[in-house]
Write a structure and sequence with these properties.
With about 110 residues, the chain is an alpha+beta fold. Helix content is about 50%, strand content about 15%. Strand 3 (about 75-80) and strand 4 (about 85-90) form a beta hairpin.
């Protein structure tokens, strides 16, 4: 009976570890896709003669929609004639921290 409890305890510990690793992998996947979406939007904005809403300062790219692959709201804001920023909202804290870890020193994400 005690051996059976020991086996169940070991299986429980392994299960918790597997679930934690799986959740980290899902967050990493979402972070990678979101960074890819930001780069895609950046390239589209650089190569774009699309609509620019002068009242809000937002660049409108109808072919990209307004959300990322995982449903995070995205927008491109024009800061000046030579500068713009890609905004991604409602990113979960874990995904955001993984994104910040993956960004190199020469790039920045808000």
């Amino acid at each position: 009976m005690i051996e059976m409890l020991a086996v169940l305890a070991i299986i429980g510990v392994l299960s918790v570890t597997a679930v934690a690793g799986l959740m980290w992998a899902f967050a990493k996947y979402k972070a990678n896709n979101t960074i890819h979406d930001v780069h895609l939007w950046e390239l589209a904005a650089l190569d774009s003669n699309q609509l620019f809403d002068r009242t809000s300062g937002q660049l409108i790219l109808p072919e990209l929609g307004s959300v990322s692959t995982h449903g995070y709201p995205m927008a491109i804001w024009i800061e000046s004639e030579d500068a713009f920023s890609v905004h991604v909202n409602d990113v979960p804290k874990r995904v955001c921290s993984l994104m910040l870890d993956m960004v190199t020193a020469d790039k920045s994400l808000p």
